Amino acid sequence: MAVEHPANDSSRRRYQYIDKFLNRAGPSTDPDFVPGAPTITNLETSKVLVIGAGGLGCEILKNLAMSGFRDIHVIDMDTIDVSNLNRQFLFRKDDVGMSKAEVAAASIMKRCKDVKITPFNGRIQDKDEDFYLQFKIIVCGLDSIEARRWINATLCSMVDMDNPESLKPLVDGGTEGFKGQARVIIPTLTSCIECQLDMHAPRAAVPLCTLATIPRQPEHCIEWAKIIAWEEHRKDTILDTDDPEHITWLYEKALNRAKEFNIPGVTYQTTQGVVKNIIPAIASTNAIIAAACCNEAFKLATSCNPTLTNYMMYTGDDSIYTYTFEHEQKPDCPVCGNLAKTITVNPNQTLQEFIQSLGERPEAQLKKPTLRTESTSLYFQSPPSLEEQTRPNLSKKLRELISDGEEVGVSDPAFIIDFKFKLVFQS
Fold it and tell me: Which of 209, 293, 304, 336 is catalytic?
């Protein structure tokens, strides 16, 4: 039987079609679903965090505001560039140079008077657990695998089985041109982003000799600045691809390199795209994936229908195709599992070659790893004194340093967790 919300006059008129889902039970609603006022109030008071206010984030913010969420927070460290205006529809030409989060929040609240959006201009890594604990749902519209891995690990580490409020569902969306995906992650209970990491293989590497001696494309100059110039001039500083100062430094180095070899096409935007592996965004794909993400957030907040289990992929580059499947949780996941991940290695490979391979392996993708076994330190990236002390190990073969099947602990400054790998020698 339908139950009316007590304030169903002007305050709910905007949401009258949504209320058809909330004022009555349906064949797929959760057994604990309570139609009417309690569910509507729960939706209105659910505090949601949106990470990213770019192409996907703008769509997500608009959809959430129009779906009945009234307490939305958004965090993004970027400022608006003129190139954003073709698809990030909450921004105008006069907004160029301003904070994306702040402008997006103001733009939504101007149109939806009953919605409060709180903006944060900064990095997600600068917020502590207490910040994330205040939200009921977190929705990601990021363009960076590294940032996704960080928030995924943070939410998993927050889970306290004695405190149900510590478990924060993560709805993640991503697009690459005409392709996209949406997924729902219940930290520690379902497959997490780290479990699915091998689905996001790193970009094929350009031979180092090409970068160092005969660059032919603007991308080669940018990769040279990132890999070689940064290591020569700023070795003690961890490259942060979300830091505008770091991107500007790389752009200037790459531009000078390009001029030296008469290569046109190095721009700030291109530099940012290469360094962060950004693929050109298409507005319609953003709209489709954002709609899927916001539907899942709506279902999580109201229990009006079952949520996605747990991965939806979409492709529109050759006709239109969608597919939903359940990605299984991996026992050897370094974030939500408790077993070491097995990696097969060549025992005659040097430690330096193995470290380089960790950045290329789809299941690892670690750029600045520090390695140690239970009994000894293999290699430290920092501080300089420990790096110098363990540097001789780089030229040694793996069979000289570890035994077949031995576990190696790996840490990387980009992540808050340690990784465990069981190294099995090739026969």
Answer: 209
